[in-house]
């Protein structure tokens, strides 16, 4: 359905597993959240604010 839709690109995160057939669609771009989650863990551990990561 996405392939034939007028959408140019659909951006999703890798926070949940994605079906292999969906990844094969050229219109779907998967972004990793690993870096931002890692930074949030480090800041939380240090007692620093994580607000600026998500604003």
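Sequence proposed for the structure above (55 residues):
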């Amino acid at each position: 359905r996405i392939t034939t839709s007028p959408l140019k690109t659909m951006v999703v995160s890798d926070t949940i597993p994605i079906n292999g057939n969906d990844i094969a669609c050229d219109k779907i771009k998967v972004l990793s959240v690993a870096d931002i989650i890692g930074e949030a863990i480090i800041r939380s551990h240090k007692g620093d604010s994580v607000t600026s990561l998500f604003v």
